[in-house]
Amino acid sequence: MSKGRVLVTGAAGYIGSHTTVELINAGYDVVGVDNFSNSSPDMLKGIEQITGRPLPFMELDCSDRDQFAKVFERYPDIAASIHFAACKAVGESVQQPLKYFENNLRSLLYLIELSTRDGHGRGIVFSSSCTVYGEPDPENLPISENAPVKPATSPYGRTKQMSEEILHDCVTAYPSLKVIALRYFNPIGAHPSALIGEMPLGVPQNLVPYITQTAAGIRKELRIFGNDYPTPDGTCIRDYIYVCDLAKAHVAAVDRILQVKDSDRYEIFNLGTGTGLSVLELVNHFIQATGVNLPYSYAPRRAGDIVKVWANPEKANKVLGWKAGTPIDDVLRSAWKWEKKVRGIQ
Ligand code: UDP
Q1: Which are the catalytic amino acids?
Q2: Predicted pLDDT of residue 268
Q3: pTM > 0.90: yes or no
Q4: How much distance in Å is there from the Cα of 206 to the middle of ligand 1?
Q5: What angle do CA 167, 169, 173 make, to 5 degrees?
C-alpha cells in the first residue's frame, strides 16, 4: 500500500536523487521534476536501477508557472512536496543575484500557490541551509534552531532566508498549509551502489568532490584554504553529514507532515551529525579510509568562509526520530567509490 504521492522538485540533483530513492524505499509514490540545468538524466536511471521500478517524471522548469502547474494537473494526488530545485552556487549568486532571486523565489512562490490553490492543503518540505546562521557566536556552538539568523553574506544565502520567511508568512495565511524547513549542514558521500552521487560541473567548489577528483588524478592537489584560523589545527570546522542519512530525514519530515495531525504547521530542523571536523581531519580520514594518496598544500583563506559551525541535531533526533549515524570513513569510501565509477577507475 502506498503511503501517498510526494512531488520531488530537483529529483535528478544530488540530494533530490538520494531522497527520491529513500522515499520509494519507504513506501511513497514519487513524481520527480527537474529541468536538468545542473543535473543529468543519468541520475534518473540510477534511481530506477536502485529501486527496481520506473520513476514517474516530468522535465520542466519550476520557475515557469504554466509548466509547473502541469505536474499538479497530471498528479492531483500529490500530498506533499520536497522542494530541492534551486540554483546553489554561492560565488555565481554574487555575480548574478537576479538569476538567484528569479529562479529560487519564483519556483517557491509557484509551489506554494499550486499547493494551496484548491484549499487542498499539501505539505511542503523545504531545503534550507545552515548558511542562515552565518558565523555563529562561539557560545552558540553546537548551533540549535533558535540561534539568531544572521544577515546573509550572499544572494544565494539570502534566497534561503527569504524562502523561510515567505513560507512562514504563508503558513499564517493558509490554514491548510504545513511546512518543514530543513537546515542542512555539509552533505557529502554517495549511495552505496555508486549508481547516484554528486556531479559537480567544472572545477568543484566543495571540499569532498575536490578531494575525490584529486585522488582520481583530475586535479593536481587539494588546496586547503587557510591554516591560521582560531581552531585546534588552524583549518575550518564543519559538520559533514552523509547524503543518505540526510535523505532519510526528508522521509521522516514527510511522515510527520502527513501523519502527525497536531504538529506545528511551521517547523525548522537542523540536519547534522552534531560533530565538527576540521578540513585537515577530514583529509586524514579520507586517506585512512581509502588508502589513496592525496597531495595537498595550504593556501590563503577563501573569502567569505565561516571559521566553525556544527549542528545541535537534538530536535531532529527527538521530534523526527532520526539520527545521522553513518561513520565518516564509510561516508568517504562511498564518495571515492562514486568518483571511481564516474571516471572508470578500477
Ligand atoms: N575547502 C578547502 N579546499 C577546497 C574546497 C573547500 O580547503 O578546495 C574548505 C573550505 O574553505 C571550508 C571547507 O573546506 O573550510 C568546506 O567547504 P565547502 O565549500 O565544501 O562547504 P561550505 O564552505 O559551504 O561549508
Answers
A1: 156
A2: 98
A3: yes
A4: 5
A5: 110
